[in-house]
Amino acid sequence: MLEAINLCKFYGSVMAVENVTFTLAPGQVLGYLGPNGSGKSTTVKMLAGLLQPTYGEVTYNHQNIHEDLIGFRKIVGYVPEEPNLYPHLTGEEYLDMVGTLRAMTPSRKSTRINSLMELFSLWPHRHITLGSYSKGMRQKILLIAALMDNPDVLILDEPLSGLDVTSVLIVKSLVQALSAKGKAVFYCSHILEVVEKVCSHLIVLRKGQVLAHGPTSAVREKIGKSSLEDVFLDLVEDVDITQIVNDIVRVVACP
Amino acid sequence: MISRTKRWLAERRRAFCRSPFGCLVELFLSRMFQGAGDAEAGELDLGVGVILILLAMPGLLVSLLMFEKYGSLIRFLRGERAFDPFKAAIPDEYLFIVLSVSVAGAAALWRWDSIFLDRRDYSNLVPLPLSLGAIFFANLCALLALTGVLTIAANGASVALFPIAVVGSRPSLALFLRFATGHAAAVFAASVFSFSAIFALAGGLTALVPPSAFRRVSLGIRFVLVVTLLILLATSFTVPDLLKRLSVSNAHRVAVLPPVSFLGVARTIWVGENDTFSFSMAGAALIAVGVSMLTATLAYAFSFRRSFIRLPELPDARPRTRISSLLPRLAVFEKLAFRSSTHRACSQFVSRSLWRSTAHLQTLLCFLAVGLVISAETFAAASYHFSARRNTVPPVEFLSIPFILGFCILVGIRFAFEIPLDLRANWVFRLWLDPDRHDARSVARRVLRAFSLYWMGPLVLLSTLVFWGWTTALLHTAIWCACMLVLVEILLIRFRKMPFTCPYPPFQSHAPLMAVGYLFGFYVFESWLPELDRWFVLSPINAVWIIALLGSVLAGLGWYRNQMLDMDKRLTFEDVSKNPFS
């Protein structure tokens, strides 16, 4: 079980995340929602052990992850926000490198790489350098790299970014299938429809603070809205959407 | 036996690369050799083989030239009966050491950005089950391996060939081995020193300079280092002669130059400890190598702790400082200079890219450094004439300085125009520019002028005014400006691109001819035009001839443009993208 306990992060005097607390149990898909600059990526980095919280702690099975960071990372699959890969390596070479660095056995590694590349439709492009891959293909490589060592916890930061329609459908179903297999999934995204469909639990964040937390349906019922979009607007955006749209049209149309 | 050893070594290497640590070392090494490797983003991907050949080429060429110089038949024909290889080879040994320092230094400067771990390494490697210590030591091992490979590549040819050229015809194996050992020790130590010293500086900067100022400071330091390396290279024209006349034992005057210390290493191995000066120089050289390596390691450790570990805490980019008071005036200037808003937008893009892109600014600074070093040498010659003929016409050496600098800057910018800047972003020009109507030359022309004439012109005028008065200053500046304008037209004769938006031009069969053309152009600007300038300053009536000459060049260029087919004048993006998925 992955727990975030009173997580706070300051960049200098700027507070990015304040008192974020939640639990991610096996089999759970926790959606993490918030507008730009609300502290989502900072939380993701703290969960992955890339960033030390200023206050609070992240624990896995009641042990602070920083006490055995390498051990923790062995059971985590992480998909970062940006597919910032080594462009001089081919897709296959990159995955082989990740497998080696994860200390996977050569046979297990090669079986997984071949099968997953085939399933993600990357097999024909396995010998092409990542610099030539499209954004969606790089994203698939990141997903394979996160999944290939069968992690217990998946931390996904905008995993559908750049993917085509078929791949989006596959990944959405995959997340649910993995949670059914007992994996804990932390799913950070802007796309409300996907979060609504995929996540069993939800956290809504604004300016680093948790506004709502609980099972998705419960959050929706608590706010009294029919869709997650309405919930999000009600909680996070204190702006008049219609007014903004009208203003934009006025600016664009003015001579 | 050999094939078995090779097989065993290959197996060992494969086994090493299969371990997480070996995999990291291999990754860092490939990253250092190939940079970001993003051809679409404008990175020049040469491949390991080409890089090693480029590094080996200077040593190889100079070594081959030595066979002619030290051939026993040639020595016999010259009448050199008594030949002391250890004395005769001193100037050439100095040349090899300078080459070794310069090539290793240039390689370190070229890979300056790739030798330290960056944000990409952080996002790819740190989330994996690896300790930071493993990443630290793997990159350190890769750096040591890189130093070794660079050292061997830069000096391998000379270590093998130079001793053969000098003492190969002697019957004594001991003599050959002594000479070869001395040469190898000197050039290898020089390379390691050069690479480590530059690496230590880069590490120190990463650790000490705040990220917001790093790019500017780093560019400035690299520029100074290029100038220093060029000056060192230039000493190979004068110092060997000095060493020959004074002998190394009396070379205290040039002892401050690092290559002289490394020459001491070679001399100590060649003639023993009897030569106390060489012995002390050898000691200094070895201490310098040790200190530079230690400093480089400490700087790397410090930068890893200060910079790499803190990467997620640092923002990706900071807002640029804007000079707001200057903008309205520049806007007025731009409206006057450019007839259409398209030209204004393109020109702003080109100027800002040239100013902000590290790769392009680095290229321009390299050309500027070459110009500065040659100008400095010319200035040293001109300073003699200053005192001798203060109140007469300026000496040719003085007049040639702006010509040299102007030529180097203009050619540097023209060269930088060919370096792509993230080709994925050029869609905006493809979308908006009409290939049949857009005149790419006028944009390039104005940028070339803005980056050379507009700031150098006043400087040329002022510097001449201080020494030779208004008339000479105006005449000199006028002819300099005219020559620069003609050079701009020559450089853009077949130009039909939006700068920075096309991939690297493919190698063409006439490329060597163009290189010769540029050298000839440099010679014209360094020698002929200053002579012509002086002739004009002496008697302004000669302007008729100069105007006729420049006018005929312009007319010739105009005629050539008229002969060109319309399709050769059409705007191009040379669409040969390597990215099949873009």
Description:
The complex is a heterodimer of chains A (255) and B (582). Chain A is of the alpha/beta class and 255 residues long. Chain A folds into 2 domains: 177 residues, 3-Layer(aba) Sandwich (Rossmann fold), CATH 3.40.50.300; 67 residues, no CATH class. Chain A has 10 helices and 10 strands. In chain A, helix 6 links the parallel strand 7 and strand 8. Chain B has 582 residues and is mainly alpha-helical. Chain B folds into 2 domains: 284 residues, no CATH class; 230 residues, no CATH class. The longest helix of chain B has 52 residues. The model of chain B has no long low-confidence stretch (mean pLDDT 82). The interface between A and B is large, with 35 and 38 residues.
Brief descriptors of the model:
heterodimer; A: 255 residues; Rossmann fold; six-stranded mixed β-sheet; four-stranded antiparallel β-sheet; 10 helices; B: 582 residues; 2 domains; 0% strand
Helix and strand content put the structural class of chain B at: mainly alpha
Judging from the principal axes of the Cα atoms, what is the shape of chain B? globular
Order of helices and strands of chain A: EEEHEEHEHHHEHEHEEHHH
Strand content of chain B: under 5%
Compute the number of strand runs of chain B. 0
- Provide the CATH architecture of the largest domain in chain A: 3-Layer(aba) Sandwich
Individual helix count of chain A: 10
Query: Widest sheet of chain A: strand order?
Result: 6-7-8-3-9-10
CATH class of the largest domain in chain A: Alpha Beta
- Global morphology of chain A: globular
* Low confidence ranges of chain A: none
Question: What is the CATH fold-level name of the largest domain in chain A?
Answer: Rossmann fold
Query: Gyration radius of chain A, to the nearest Å?
Result: 19 Å
Distance between the termini of chain A: 59 Å
Assembly context of the chains: heterodimer
* SSE string of chain B: HHHHHHHHHHHHHHHHHHHHH
